[in-house]
Amino acid sequence: MIHRATSIFLNKQAGLKRSKAQTGAITLIHRFGSAANLNIHLHCLVLDGVYRV
């Protein structure tokens, strides 16, 4: 869901149709905090643009 929303936003900003360009992202689920407590959250690495394919 996060990747789809980011991809749609970046394609609109670039003025391209979704089928003409792609972006990329990696999302990791982090389950524990530094004190070994349960703290579920996401870490996302998202490209800052789109690439024509």
TrEMBL record:
It holds the Pfam family Y2_Tnp. It comes from the Bacteria. InterPro entries: Transposase_32 (IPR007069). Residues 24-51 form the Transposase IS801/IS1294 domain. GO terms for molecular function: DNA binding; transposase activity. One of its GO terms (biological process) is DNA transposition. This is Transposase IS801/IS1294 domain-containing protein.
